[in-house]
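Quick start: read one record
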Amino acid sequence: MVDGAAIVDAVDAPGYFISFEGGDGVGKSTQLRLLRDWLAEVTGRDVVLTREPGGTELGAVLRRAILHGDDMDPRTEALLYAADRAHHVASLIRPALERGAVVLTDRYLDSSLAYQAVGRGLGDDSVEVVNRWAVQDLMPDATVLLDLDPVVAARRRTSTPDRLERAGDEFHRRTREAFLSRAAAEPDRWIVIDADGDVDDLQAQIRVALAARLDLAPLVEEAAWLDAEEVTSE
């Protein structure tokens, strides 16, 4: 693990946008919290942790409707996710990036391609067009996929299943395959991590991969050097 003091003035620097994808129960929330603390330390930037749906007040309302409300047809579901995403980007994500923050989101556009386009059978083209329009083509600098067998992931969940979690093993098998297919098609953006492992080991893998992908290696090395200097002087 790398620790270190904040070492860069990011007032005028562009922000970083990182999304996490994967099935429910793979450990995204835990890994995102650990990554948030580390990135704040080694970059000196404001780190915004958010999620979809539910990252804004409107998003919280839409989240309850989509995940815990009455059943709805797949097109309605897809459009509600797109509406949440449009508002999320316009009101939270894009302003944060413009001020030089790091934005970490638990799910983004790729979830709609996996769950609604493939899982619900709506087709990639229409769902991607709607969502690309909703976010004005804003895509993450890096996307971390925590990959895990859906059956194993389901055993990890402790809360009452929501509408998507109740969709069945075959549905979740299709969504997993969709995530892996998208990752294979865009290797420069995606980082695939086997989520069947120790929490700290997974976090270490994520940090190393992101440091290389986002050119953070010099910051990480300097942070480690500062720590070593501090220990030596004690």
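Residues 16-233 form a domain with the Rossmann fold fold (CATH 3.40.50.300).
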